[in-house]
Model the fold of this input.
Amino acid sequence: MGRIKEISRRPAHKRKRNPVVYLICEGTETEIRYFKRFRSRGCHIDIIPIPFQYKAADQLVRKARATMGMHPYYPDEGDVIWCVFDRDENTDAALRGAKHMADREGYRLAYSNPSFELWFLLHFADQRAEVTDCQAVIRMLKQPGRLEQYEKSQDLYDLLRPMQEKAIERAKQRVRALAEENAEIICRRSNPVTTVAELVEYLNGKR
Done:
């Protein structure tokens, strides 16, 4: 299958629409609750959770392409698609497949290794040492002075907002350090890393 085709039948006279940012996420509460808070008058965000059986990175991007075939998608008017996913149990082959397909389709990727909670942790600490898995990140997140009562169902946006710029800086520094080592960002070895900062900056710029 090729790139999603734009819907060409448009009203002859229509009100100018704001671009839509489509977020294709693993079907978890954490990401959905967080990114909903970026919606504004100038930034329409449509969050589309993907069922658990498509959790593998390459399957998620493939399912995103099929799902978007049922949505009005106008890239020439500024619509953009971001796929948001974690390392989880993905193999390097699955991660490479996801990146290749996203590049081909014009999608953007917000990848976290080992988990999305790393983005939250960076609001409190410049984490550069390897972290084994999501539960290890959560244990660090629950340390005193951080999010001691953290639960995936919490709305943390307001609490984290004052530290957002610091988290962006830390996330981007880590990506630059890996790039200087000629390391692949979207792979299992790039631990820890998150490119969620790029998505957050993008959404902030649309407000």
In short: Residues 1-13 have pLDDT under 50 and may be disordered.
